Amino acid sequence: MKTVVSTVYWHQLDDRRVQCDLCPRGCQLHEGQRGLCFARACEQGEIVLTTYGRSSGFCIDPIEKKPLNHFLPGTPVLSFGTAGCNLTCRFCQNWDISKSREMDSLADQASPEMIARTAHSLGCRSVAYTYNDPVIFLEYAVDVANACRAQGIKSVAVTAGYLCPEPRAEFFQFMDAANVDLKGFTESFYHRLCGGHLQPVLETLEYLVHETSVWVELTTLLIPGENDSEAELEAMTQWVVEHLGSNVPMHFTAFHPDYQMRAYQATPPETLTRARAIAIRNGVRYAYTGNVHDAAGGSTFCDQCGQRLIGRDWYVLSDWNLTADGCCKQCGAVCAGVFEAHPGNWGSRRQPVRLCDIAG
Questions:
Q1: What is the pLDDT of residues 286-317, one digit of tens each?
Q2: For residues 148 and 125, what is the distance between their CA atoms, to the nearest angstrom?
Q3: Which of 347, 342, 348 is nearest to 72 (CA)?
Q4: What's the rounded Cα separation, in Å, for the pair 65 and 205?
Q5: How many CB atoms are located within 10 Å of the residue 87 CB?
Q6: What pLDDT digit, counting tens, does each position of 234-290 carry?
Q7: Which residues contact 289 (CB under 8 A, 6 or more apart)?
Q8: Which residues pair with residue 40 across a beta bridge?
Q9: Which residues are paired to 78 by β-bridges?
Q10: Which residue(s) pair with 19 in the sheet?
Q11: Is there a smaller number of Cβ atoms within 10 Å at the N or the C end of the chain?
Q12: Bridge partners of 251?
């Protein structure tokens, strides 16, 4: 399969370089150079995507692992990524993929149609573009999403939301759900630890919630001493309620020492519990803890009567107290999300998939 395709989000500079206009980084490249993301490069005077049709691997996951708790709960999702990323997060938990600069990392080849057929044949309700940020392989992700729609398969973006307005509009018109990493809530955090800026992410979030039909959930990896102060959590959760609304779920997840931050301590569970309490106090109706065993912090409760609507033990669903139209069985209040009459039963299984075996 051809792995290099032309793109449209770039422009020519006066000094014979070309500037990539996909994300706020705006890489300015000479012939033969790659952008920081690795996936996009300057070839024959234009920006091309070099990883089209190539993946670092496929796996069936529970949708709750993305994490999405209000989008087709209990169902399996076919997950895949490519290589590279347009941020430089020092704490990256998938650094072996997102920081990869080797084409050998992209061992699996798959056309968009093959991915859609595989998802359908394996009973997956959705395909997730994840592991690294799908915005950097926008053209491939869009083609996969189109093929999936033809098979009745939903598309899920797991992203940091770091992209410019025009490609943002194209990318998200093909997505049905997104989990956006809101990595912190200070410009200093984004600049020092992510190599980016906070404001473009906030603009993406407002765009998604107010100008699209994409179901949105947020994830913040809490790193001790960096983005877990009470003041920052207060500011973040207040902003979410004021600018996005009370129905956008927030996931506060535990950091473990990795990549360039191995000297840091893992996040104490009580930090996640505190963050969840702050979010709820500030009006977030659905706040969760993640990467820890916390049945209460992982479950969904009715914001009106307190009934446990969806019980979760890690990724396994227990209680299910929603009506067929997504309302609390006890008081009738609507639970925000994308639900069906019955939950899936995929559980916590993680099933690696080789598409060449399926195709064969």
A1: 999 999 999 999 999 999 999 999 999 999 99
A2: 10
A3: 342
A4: 21
A5: 22
A6: 999 999 999 999 999 999 999 988 778 888 999 999 999 999 999 999 999 999 999
A7: 251, 252, 253, 254, 269, 272, 273, 275, 276, 297, 298
A8: 49
A9: 60, 127
A10: 11, 28
A11: C
A12: 219, 288
Bridge partners (DSSP) listed for residue 157 = 129, 178
For residues 80 and 73, give the distance between their C-alpha atoms in angstroms, rounded to a whole number.
19
Which DSSP string do the residues of 299-344 spell out, in sequence order? SEE-TTT--EEEEEETTEEEEE-B-TTSBBTTT-PBPPSB--SS--
In sequence order, what are the beta bridge partners of 252? 220, 289
Token digits for 300?
Answer: 């969904």
183 neighbors 89 (Cβ within 8 angstroms): yes
- pLDDT tens for 174-201 read 999 999 999 999 999 999 999 999 999 9
Please state whether the peptide bond connecting residue 67 to the residue before it is cis, i.e. omega within 30 degrees of 0: yes
Find where tokens 């902003």 sit: 239
Please tell me whether the overall predicted TM-score, pTM, comes out greater than 0.85 for this model: yes
Q: Which domains does the chain have, with CATH numbers?
A: 5-49 (no CATH), 55-359 (3.20.20.70)
Closest C-alpha among 270, 285, 85 to residue 195:
85
Provide DSSP, 58-83: EEEEEGGGTT-SSBSTT-EEEEEE-S
Task: Kindly state the helix (H) or strand (E) to which residue 351 belongs, with its residue range.
Answer: strand 351-353
Q: Which residues, at least 6 apart from 180, have a Cβ–Cβ distance to it below 8 Å? A: 159, 160, 161, 201, 204, 205, 208, 216, 217, 218, 219
Backbone angles phi, psi at 35, to 5 degrees: -75, 170
Residue identified by tokens 């999405």 is: 68
Which residue blocks in 136-198 are alpha helix, DSSP H?
A: 138-150, 165-172, 187-189
Of 128, 67, 68, 78, which is closest to residue 352 (Cα–Cα)? Answer: 78
